[in-house]
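Lab notebook, bench 4. The sequencing result for the construct came back, and we need a structural model before the next group meeting so we can plan mutations. Quick request posted to the team channel:

Model the 3D structure of this chain.
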Amino acid sequence: MNRMGDGRQERSAFPGSFRRWIGLPVLAAAMLLGQAALADPAAEQDRAAIRQLEEGVARVLAEKGFDAYADLFHADYSNWGDGGVARDRAAFLSDVQRWHAGGGHAVATHMAPLSIEVFGDLALSRYVLREDFNDGSAFVGRFVSLAKREHGAWLLFRTSYTTLYQGPAADAPVPTPALQATIGTDARRAE
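Done. Here's the predicted structure in token form:
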């Protein structure tokens, strides 16, 4: 009997045993794939917040000032660039404050994320970032960054970068995930 109970036979293009033994696993696989495709909304919100933090940090300095910029960095922040000496939060912010007081600031940023992985209150980001500055120069770097959630807000905790380009903005490459492969690992600096 069909579902309507009127005695008519349901017609299917597939015999009953096929539907039962093949159809069920296919349906189960489709459901699992569908669930995997539906991302956890909280994790997606975290990734969006972290991307906004990573991509927008340089513009905060120009738009909201040094104090707002400094508030984006965890008390135990450290920065390590181009294989040099790692700088703690105080040394890093002192360098930025001196540069900003001299009139320097970013006018645009563009980020090409490679991955943002959230592990509870820590998040690991890998991305290529371009910053254009008010003096007509640009910086493009490959970053690995660790953000830490504190009191509900994501803060920059560790940053490591390799310079891919530093020079006139007109000659700077546009960041894409493929950019790191096309430029390679050596820093390219314009004279």
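The two ends are 83 Å apart (CA to CA).
Will bring this to the meeting.
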